[in-house]
Amino acid sequence: MSLPNCTHCQHPPERREKAGALLLICPVCNNRGEASTNHDWAVASWSQVNRTDLPYCCEEKPVRFKQREQQWFGGCTGCDNRVGGFMSLQGAVAGWARRLR
Ligand SMILES: [Zn+2]
Ligand SMILES: [Zn+2]
Predict the structure, then answer these.
(1) Are residues 64 and 99 part of one domain?
(2) Rounded to the nearest whole angstrom, what is the distance from the C-alpha of residue 13 to the centroid of ligand 1?
(3) Contact (CB, 8 A) for 27 and 14
(4) Per residue in 49-89, pLDDT tens?
C-alpha cells in the first residue's frame, strides 16, 4: 500500500517504532498519525490526517489534525477555525467535516 506524502509540505513520512507502537510522522513539520501497537491502524491514521477529500476552510489551506492529551483536534492552517477535543481521530475528522458543511 502506498502512503500519501504529508499534505502540508509534501514530504514522505518516516516510520518510527517505540515499545512496539508504530508512528508515522513527517520529519519536516511534525505532522503525525496516531502511534499504535496496531500497525495497520498506525498506517491508516497517517492516511486520515492527510486526507485530501475534506473541504478547505481557507483557500488552499488543508486541515491539520493534532493529538493532545489523548484528545484529537482539527484546525485550519490559514485561520483559527478549529474543532476538538474528540476521543478519536475519526471523531475529529467527522467533526471537521461537519464544521465546514
Ligand atoms: Zn509535513
Ligand atoms: Zn480557515
Answers:
(1) yes
(2) 8
(3) yes
(4) 999 888 889 988 899 999 999 999 999 999 999 999 999 99
Around ion ligand 1, residues with a beta carbon closer than 5 Å are: 6, 8-9, 11, 26, 28-29, 31
Compute the distance between CA of residue 57 and CA of residue 15 in angstroms, rounded to an integer. Answer: 29
pTM of the model: 0.92
Measure the N-to-C terminal CA separation of the chain; round to a whole number of Å: 31
Cα 70 to ligand 1 centroid, rounded to whole Å: 21
Asked whether residue 12 falls in the same domain as residue 40, the answer is: yes
Same-domain pairing of 40 and 82: no
Distance 3 CA to ligand 2 centre (A): 26
Distance CA 20, CA 14 (A): 16
- Tell how far the Cα of 7 is from the centroid of ligand 1, in angstroms: 7
Q: Which residues pair with 36 in a beta bridge?
A: 22
> What's the domain count of the chain?
2
